[in-house]
Amino acid sequence: MGSWRPGVEGRGRNISITPGPIKRFTFMIEEKPLASWTGTDRLDEEVVPTLTVILKTPGCSWRRCRMCSYKHEQHGRVEDAEALIRAQLAWVRREYGGRDYDLVKVFSSGSLLDPNEVPPAALDAIGETFRGRTLVAETRPEYVDRERLEALASILDDGSVDRPVYVAIGLETTNDQVREKSIDKGFSYAVFLHAAREAHAAGAGVKAYLLHKPLFLTEAEALEDMQRSIAEVSSHADLISMNPCTVQRRTDLEWYWQRRAYRPPYLWSVVKILLEADRHVTADPLGGGRHRGPHNCGSCDHELVDAIRDYSLNANRSRLVEAMALPCECRKEWEFVLESERPYCMPLTR
Ligand SMILES: [Zn+2]
């Protein structure tokens, strides 16, 4: 969806001023974000034009998640973060100024609401840049704070949107053991629930990202984990997005995958989960049909990926029903795997 434009690192326009023989200042007026693209998304039963921006920041405060390669993205020092973010916003304003988009999703490689990664003044500048639009701000839950969100919403709000801010949190699963052992995410479900309450109290929406098939789970365990997570988080999240796991480079997950100790989920599982969920759940099968992404046998993948994307955007269930009924041989393989795969043994004690 949309045109993807990879960011080019370190290509900002820099200006140097030499006021005298002693001091030399360098500051940026524009800096290209890590990536940015336009597309469409589903929000409040409508399909809306979207801008996605991935900002360069000093990076994630946690950097331990087993499947995440964004932990390697660290740009500049904390004390320079505000200038770096302002320079990227200047680039975004020039590049997308004339474009029509209602929703803007802003990611960093960490948390937009972490004041040590995105200084409060830089967060305000993000609000000013996207005033009049709905902002989806991705963050770890420990940084969700009612007062900060209210302040951000008041900057964004020009009276034209119902809910100016959504916080997007990578909850991954509602199961604390799976989140700890298979992901190493470093927070509990209780922390997420607290953040969701804070966000709602501030009038913000909550988007929960769930990870389908983290390390060490069988296909059947992963399917059950996702179905339970969707059911449990449903009353606490306004939007649920399921991410079928992709093998990113330089991660623990890749280490296991290279040793045949991990396989990304079958697309059959993804379709089954979406079909059986009690509410609309979106899924972006990134890398769908490739070895590193969610995949089936190679010949039916394309149709399933298309159906998943169509359902995510248009909530068109009939496409999913048709996809599930595709007469592909690999369906039997998937059923065999669901039935026969046995879990790894992890000791409960040391
Ligand atoms: Zn197949």
Question: What keyword list fits this structure?
Answer:
alpha/beta; 350 residues; nine-stranded mixed sheet; binds zinc ion; 35% helix; two-stranded antiparallel sheet
Describe this structure in words.
The chain has 350 residues and is of the alpha/beta class. 35% of the residues lie in helices and 19% in strands. The protein has a 9-stranded mixed β-sheet. A two-stranded antiparallel sheet has the order 2-3. β4 and β5 form a beta hairpin. α1 runs parallel beside α2 (120-129) and α8 packs across α10. The longest helix is centred in the N-terminal third of the chain and has 16 residues, at 81-96. Mean pLDDT is 91; it is low at 1-25. The structure holds zinc ion. Zinc ion is lined by residues 296-297, 299-300, 328, 330.
What's the short version?
The protein is α/β, with parallel strands linked by helices and 350 residues long.
Name the bound molecules: zinc ion
Strand content: 15-25%
Number of helices, where a helix is a run of at least 4 consecutive DSSP H or I residues: 11
State the shape: globular
Strand order of the largest sheet: 1-4-5-6-7-8-9-10-11
Evaluate the radius of gyration.
21 Å
Helix/strand/pairing category: alpha/beta
- Spatial gap, N to C terminus: 47 Å
Give helix % range. 25-40%
Strand segment count: 11
How would a crystallographer describe the biggest sheet?
Answer: 9 strands, mixed
Note poorly predicted spans. Answer: 1-25
What would the average pLDDT be, to the nearest integer? 91
SSE string, helices as H and strands as E: EEEEEHEHEHEHHEHEHHEHHH
